[in-house]
Amino acid sequence: MIAGKRILGAAVSAMLMGSVSAYADTIKVGIIGPFSGPFALQGKNFQAGVEAYMALNGKSVKGHDIEIIYRDLPAANPAQSRALAQELVVKEKVQYLGGVYFTPDAMAITPLLSQANTPLVIFNAATSAIVNTSPLVVRTSFTTAQTTNPLGKIAFNEGVKKAITVVSDYGPGVDAENAFRKAFEAAGGQVVEAVRMPMNTTDFSPIMQRVRDSGATGLFAFLPSGPPTLGFVKAFNETGLKKAGIKFYAPGDLTQESDLPALGEAAEGLKTSFHYSVAHDSPENKKFVEAAVKAIGSADQLSFPAVGAYDGMHVIYKMIEATDGKQDAKKAVDAVRGLSWTSPRGPVRIEPETRHITQNIYLREVAKDADGKYINKEIQTFPDQKDPGLATQ
Amino acid sequence: MQTILSIAIDALAFGMVLFIICIGLSLTMGLMRVVNLAHGAFAMIAGYIASYAARDLGLGYAASIFLAIIGTIVISIPLERFLYRRIYGSPELTQVLMTIGLTFCVIGITNYFMGPTLKIIPLPEALSQPLDVGFRTIAAHRLFVIACGAAVAGGLWYLIERTTFGIKLRATVDNAAMSDALGVRTQVVYAISFAIAIGLAALGGVVGAEFLPIEPYYALRYMVTFLVVVSVGGAGSIPGALIACLVLGFVDTTGRYLMPDFGNFFFYAAVILIVCLFPRGFLGRAQ
Amino acid sequence: MSDLFRVENLSKSFGGLAVSRNISLSMPEGERLALIGPNGAGKTTFVNLVTGQLRPSAGRVLLNGGDVTQLGAVRRVRKGLVRTFQVTRLFSDLTPEEHVTLTVLQREGKATRILSRFRGNTHVADEVHGILGTLGLHEVARRKVGQIAYGQQRLLEIAIALALKPKVLLLDEPAAGVPSADTPRIEQALERLPPSLAVLMIEHDMDLVFRFARRVVVLAAGEVIFEGGPSEVAADPKVREAYLGNYAHARSVA
Amino acid sequence: MPAASLDVRNLSAGYGPTLVLEDVSFSVPAGARLSILGRNGMGKTTLLSTLMGMNRRYGGEILVGGKDLSPLKSSERARRGIGLVPQTRDIFRSLTVEENLIVGIKDRPRNVIQEAYDMFPRLHERRNNLGWQLSGGEQQMLSTARTILGRPAVLLLDEPLEGLAPVICEELMEAFTLLASSGEMTILLVEQRLESALDFAETVLILERGRIVWQGASEALRADPGLVEHYIGVGSLH
Amino acid sequence: MHIMAQAGTVSAMPDAKSHLWRDAAGIALISACGAAGYWLFPDNLALLTRIVAVALLVLSIDLVVGYCGVATLGQAALFGAGAYAAGIACVNGVTEPMTLIAIGAIAGAAAGLLMGGVMLRAHGLAQLVLSIAIVQLFHEAANKASAYTGGSDGLAGLMVSPLFGLFEFDLWGRTAYLMGLVLLLLVFIALKFVVASPFGMLCRGIKQDPVRIRAMGAFVFPVLLKMFVISGAVAGTGGALAAVSTQVVGLDSVSFELSANALVMLVLGGLGTLYGALIGTVIFMGFEHVVSAFNPFHWMTMVGALLIAVVLAAPGGLTSLVGKVAASRQGKP
Questions:
Q1: Cystine design at B46: which of A43, B36, B72, D95 (Cβ 3.0–4.6 Å)?
Q2: How many domains does chain B have?
Q3: Beta strand ranges found along D51-145 (DSSP E)
Q4: Of D75, D90, D110, which is closest to B183 when you measure between CB atoms?
Q5: How many domains does chain A contain in total?
C-alpha cells in the first residue's frame, strides 16, 4: 500500500516536473505580470524587455541555459499572486522571480522569499516600502516619489507659486501627492489644494473646473498609465486651462509612449518627469529599442515597463553569474548590491543598502520627432536620484 | 453661478454619452428581457471599426461613424441568430453567463488582433476646437455629443411613439401574445429592435470615445456603469433612461467637483437611494 | 353566539372600477357555504380581500369577533383564516410530503429552525401522513409535485390548508382543471373536512356545489345578489338572469 | 379577406400537465355563426385561444378555408384569417385607443381606422386616451374593433358582453349581427347569456369538461329547457 | 410507512435515509478529492487553497441565489469584510489562526446582516443593482480607510501563528491547504444540515413562490435575512482563510470583479445544490489556471468560449448535466 503510494507519488512528480530539470542544466526564471486584462499592455512590455535582453545577451549565462516562465496576473490580486509565486517556486522550481506590476502583489510574495531561497527582482511595482519587506528584493524600476521629486523644484523655478495637486486615489497617487508637496513646499511654493479622484473617473471636466477655481497657476497630476490619462489631458485642454496658461506637471506615467499616439497633439508641450524615455539618445537605448520593438511587434506599444524588465534581467543574469547556477538567494542578492551599469535609460546603480535602483530622472516634454511622431523629449537631467521615499524611513 | 452652469454642461455631456450607449441596453433588457452584459462589447467593436476606418482607411468622421454602426450590426447578426436566440426567455443568470462569456471572447479576440493600446478616433477640425460659450470654453465635441444625445432621444421618441413600427414594438412589450394574435410578427420586431440597440451602442461607442476611450478592456470596464444606469432608469423606458443618465451624470459630475475624494460614495449612495425610492427605476415597466 | 367569521360591507375598486361592492356575509362554526357567480363577478378578488392579499377600499373582516382587516396575510393565516389557490401554487421540485411537513412545522413555529432535521420529528411525520392519507395522497407522497397529476395537486392544496389547522377555510375552485375522473376524489376530500371547520367554497361545478353547500351566495358584478339555501338558488329570478339571461344589473363604472 | 369555413378536427389542448380540451371536432361553413355554450371553466376560452394559436396544442388540425393552419404561430394564423377578441379583452394598456387600433390594421393604410370609429363613435371620442383609462365597455369596443379592423375571415368572440351595461351590450350585439349578416366573416361566439347566444347564432355547441356534449340548431336547444338547465343553468337538483 | 408504488418509480422516491447516505457519500467524495489534490498537486497547494477560499465564497452565494432566489453581484463585500476583519485583527496582535477565522466569520455575518437589510428592500434587477452599489461602497470604504486596510497597497505583514502552535503557514502551503480543506468540509457539512433543516426548506419555498409561503403563515423577510447572515458567515470564513493563508489582504477581495467571477462560477456549476458551487469553482479556476499558464496572453477567449459552451450544452449548469446523465441511465433499464 505504502509502496504503491510512493510509486504513484514518484510517477506524478516526474510528470509534473517534466523531464528538463532532472539532467539538463537549465535555470528557470518565473515572471509574474499582467499579460491579459486591462493592463495587458504593461505585461507585454515586461515580456518585450525580457526578450530584448535575451536576444542581445544570449540565452545562457556561464553555460547555464535560462528558461523564462510567464504567469498571468491580470489585476492586483495578492492571493493569486502568492499562489502563482508559490507554484513557480515549488512546482516549476524557478530560482528567480521577476516582474510584478502592482504593489499588493509584490507584498504578497515577499514573505515567501527567504523560505523559497529565491530573490525577487521587481520590474515595476512602485511603492517605496516593498524593498523593506524582505532582504531578497531588488527593484529595477522606480518609485513614484523618485520620479516625482524633481518636479517640485522645476515648477517653482518656472514661476509657479501656488499649485494644486490632482492624483488618483490609491497608494501611488498618494505617494506622488506627498512627494510633490514636500519638494514644492521645500522650494518655497504653496499647495493650495489637494484633490484625490476615484480610480474609475472617466470625465475630468469637473476636476478641471476645480483646478480653475482653486486659483493655482500650476497643476500637478498623477494618474496611472492607461485609458484615463487621455481623458485627463483632453479635459485640461478643452476646459481652456491650457489656454489660460496654467502649467501642467506630472510624472511620466501620464505620457507613456504607448499612449502618445492617442494623446497626440493634445499632450504636446506637456512636461513630465520620469526615469526613462523611449526617445533617450544613447547607443544602449538604440540597441534596446530595436530589440524590444522586434519582441513586442509594434513600435507604438513600447513603454517604460520594458526597460524595468530589461534591467531586471540584467540583474538576474548577474546573480546567476555570481552563484554559478546554484540556488543561493542571499549570495545572489549580495552580488548585485552596489552593481552599476549603463542601462538604456542612462547610468544606474543598485543601492547596496536599499536594493533599489538609483538613476537619472529626466524632465521631458512631449514633442514631435523628425518623423512627425510624438515622443517624450528629454530636456533636463537630474542625475543620481535615489528614492526619497526610502531616504526618509 | 458660472461654476454651476459649467458643471451642468459637463454633466449634460457626460450624461448624454451614457444615454446613447445605455438606451440600447435598456431596450434589450426592457423590451426583449435579455440581460445583455455584452452590450459594451458592441460599443467597443464599433470604436475599433471607426478608428480603423478613420486612421487606416482615411475616411471622414461621419463616414467612420456610419461604417462603424453598419459593421457592428453586421457582426451582431450571426451572434443574435446563433447565440442570443438560445437565451431568449432563459433565466437571467444563464443570460449573464452567456453574455459574460461573449464579452471575454470579444476582449480576447480584440486584444489579439488590435493590440492592447488605446485607439483614438480622430475628430474633424470643427469638433476638436475648444469653443468659447461666454462663461467658459467647452470642447465643440461636447456640444456635438449633447446634440447627438438629443437627436437620439428625439429620433427614438419619434420612432417609438409615432411610427407604426414603434406602436407594434410597444404593443409587443405590453402584451406579446396579443400582438402576435393580431398579426404582429413579434420575432421580426425583436430582431429589428436588437439591431437598433446594437446600432445605438455602436454610435455611443464612437461618439463617446472621448470620454470612454477605446481599448480592449472597455467591454468590462464600463459594464457596471451601464447596468446601473439602465436599472436606475427602468429597463425599457426612453425617458427613464434619459432621466437616469442626466441625474446620475449630474450626481457624478457634481460629486467629483464638490468632493472629489468621495466621488464614488456620492454616486453609489445616490444609486441606493434611487433604487430604494423607485424600485422599478424612474419610469420602469412592470415586470 | 357570535359568528366565527364575518365580512362587513367589503368594497374594493381598482382605478375607478369597482370589483367588490358592499359584500357582507357571515359564517358560524361548521358552515358549508358556496360562493358562485359568472366569470368576472369578483369571486377571487373577494378571497384576496378576505385573506389579506389585497387591501379593501372599505369594510371590515372579523374573525372570532376580532377585527383582522388591518393584519397582513401571514397574521391572518396564523389566526386560522386559510385559503387554497385557484391556480395551484406549489413548489414543483418538492414532494407533497415536504409541502405538508413544512406547513405543519410552520404551524408549530418550528419552520425557521436551523438546528433540527426537516424529517427528524416523528410526531410531525405521523400528522403529515395522516393528512396525506386522508386525502389519498400517500401513494405520491414522495414524488416531486411537478410529476404528479393535476387532480392530486389540487388535493395537495387542500392538504396544505388542512395542515394549518384552520378555523375558516376558503377553497378557490378546488375542482377547476381537474379531469372529470378525478373529481370524486376531491369531493370525497371535502366530505371528510373537520365538521367544526367553516368552509367557503368557490366553484363552478354546480353538481359539486349542490352536494357540498348548505348555503349559497351568488355574486355578480361585485355584489351579492342572492343568499339562501341551495334549493332556492336555481329558482331565483335574479340568479337565473345572471346565468342564463341578460343580467340587467351588471354595469360598468367609468 | 372574405369569410372562410372553419373545420376543427380532433383538437386537444391544455396547459402544462392539464388537458383542458379533449378531441374536439366541429365545422362552421363560410359566413355562418356558431355559439359556444357551457358553464365557466369548461374549456370554451381554451378552445378559442387554441384556435388562435396562443395555447399548447396537443393534437388535431385547424382548417381555415380548407388550409391547415395548426402548425403556424399565432401571428401567421392572424395573417391568414383568424381573429380573436379575447375574454380578458387584452387591450394594450400603455397604448392609446388609436394606437391600439393601428396594431390591429395589419398592413392596411392607417386611415382605415375610421371604420372602427364609424362602428363605435365612442372610441373616436376617446382616441387619445390610454388603454387603462377606458371603462370596461370601452375596452370591449376597442378590443372588438381592433380585431375587426384586421378583417379576419374567421372571428372568434369570447364573452364580449361580460360585465357590460345593457346599452352597450345592445350596441355590441347590433354590431356583431351587422358584421355577420354582411357575410364577410365567419363568427364563433362564446357567450354565457343563453338568450344572446341563441339569438345570435343558428347553430350551437355545448362544451363540458373539455368535450363537446351537444351540438345542434339553436332552435332545438331553445325548445328543450331541460337540456339548458342541465348543461348551462344553475342546475336542477339531483 | 408503507409505500405502494410501481417498481419503476421506486428510484424516483428519495428516502430520508438515502438522502443521508447520498450526503455522506458526497462528503466522502469531496474529502477524497481534497486529499487527492494534496497528493497529486503537492506543488500547487497555494492555488488549491485559493480555490478552497473562493469555493467558500461561491457556496455563500449559492445560499442566497440558489436557495433563496436573491440575485447578488456583491457577495465579495462579505468575503472582504471577513478578510479585512481577520487581517486587521492579525496586524493588531491576534495571531491564532482559528480565532482569526472566527473573527472573519463574525464580520462576514455582520456585513451579511447589513447587506441583507438593504438588498431585501428591492426585487429583481433593482436588487442586483443594490448589491453592486453595496460592494462598490465597501470597496471605496476599504480604499479610503487606508490607515487600517493599507488601501490599494493591500494590508500586508500578517504574521499568523502556527496552527495549534504546531503547524507553520509555510511556503509549501500544506498547513494552509489542509486547514482550508477541513474548514470547507466543516462548512459544507454544516450547510448540508442548514439546507436540510426546516429553515432550508422554507428558503427553497420562498425562492419558488413567496406568496404561497405567506399563505402558509410564514414571514418571508426575516427568513431571508437570516440566510444572508449565514451566507455572510460562510463568505467571511472564506475571506479570513484567504487572509490567513496569503498573509495579505488586497482591495480585490471586496471587488465587483470577484463577486461577478464567483457568480459566474456558481452558475457554471449549477444553482441550488451546494455541489454545483464546488464543481463550478474547481472547473472555472482550474480551467483558468491551466489555460492562463498555457497562454498567459490570450486565455480569456478560451474562458469565454467555455462559458458560452456551457450555456449551449448545459443551460442549468454542469450539475444539471450530471442529473441528465443519471436520468437517461434510469430511463434505460
A1: B72
A2: 1
A3: 56-64, 67-68, 82-85
A4: D75
A5: 2
